[in-house]
Amino acid sequence: xxxxxxxxxxxxxxxxxxxxxxxxxxxxxxxxxxxxxxxxxxxxxxxxxxxxxxxxxxxxxxxxxxxxxxxxxxxxxxxxxxxxxxxxxxxxxxxxxxxxxxxxxxxxxxxxxxxxxxxxxxxxxxxxxxxxxxxxxxxxxxxxxxxxxxxxxxxxxxxxxxxxxxxxxxxxxxxxxxxxxxxxxxxxxxxxxxxxxxxxxxxxxxxxxxxxxxxxxxxxxxxxxxxxxxxxxxxxxxxxxxxxxxxxxxxxxxxxxxxxxxxxxxxxxxxxxxxxxxxxxxxxxxxxxxxxxxxxxxxxxxxxxxxxxxxxxxxxxxxxxxxxxxxxxxxxxxxxxxxxxxxxxxxxxxx
Length: 351
Fold this sequence. Notes:
Elements: E1 8-12, H1 20-28, H2 31-36, E2 38-43, H3 45-54, E3 61-64, E4 77-81, H4 97-115, E5 121-124, H5 129-134, H6 142-149, E6 156-161, E7 164-168, H7 175-180, H8 184-200, E8 208-211, H9 226-240, E9 245-249, H10 251-258, E10 265-268, H11 271-282, E11 283-286, E12 291-295, E13 298-302, E14 308-311, H12 328-348
Helix pairs in contact: 4-6, 8-9
Pfam family, one: PdxA
Keywords: Metal-binding, NAD, Oxidoreductase
EC number: 1.1.1.262
């Protein structure tokens, strides 16, 4: 039954040739999700119906054209239908402009719905950047799409999995460019985004560890000047502004401490510096079965005027349509979106 007090969560299809539709449907077959929120899938209804039939998932769908038409009833999955995929042309695991256009349209639609206050938060399934670009949309990823359509200039990618919370100074750029982007002002900006993100998640440990860029955090300039010249001044300024920040800390020791909860959150200098330890924590590979047993981790875009969480894994084209994809990360992303929406609602209430 529809509950006005539960946050309305818009969940995108992701790339229709990927595991995105599968994990979205699997997540909404979990009755616990409907106890937490009012979920609605956004994408092509035919894609969801097709994957459910192929995998013999016990799913029933209700096609809607507006959020107001939804019932939010467990056992019947509401789909905001964009009707933009030709199933006869869709091939699992293949890059195509059609799939890219469909994935992009679902993302743009949930952004519009959130900006119009028709939904309380957005959750995104995995997209393929090449398919998106082949469709004519030249973005590096979800984060940049959201920043563009919400006119956001200061933003960051926050990864959350149990005790480990990591935000990045840079993400989808070359390693060479990432080093050039390690600048005091950006680092300070990201420390503030992380601090605000921890509060929005309801965390009480606000101690922030800031990673060094170079081996041994530069070792007093022996292995590069960025740590002493850019990172340290940013940390010192953050402390002057009242943030509980520490660094630069050599990355090879920082993350082992962070995984125990010593830091409430960590600032990584570039994509892989943060993603590798994060995925070692949340991704469990089964060597015997040659597949992931579990894929956990949530990606939250900080700094936006709307809430966006996402699975922190890719399209997994190699297993698309096979029924073995785990919905763990999608469920966690929905749970995080609910928590953020509730905290935002609480903060907006008059004192």
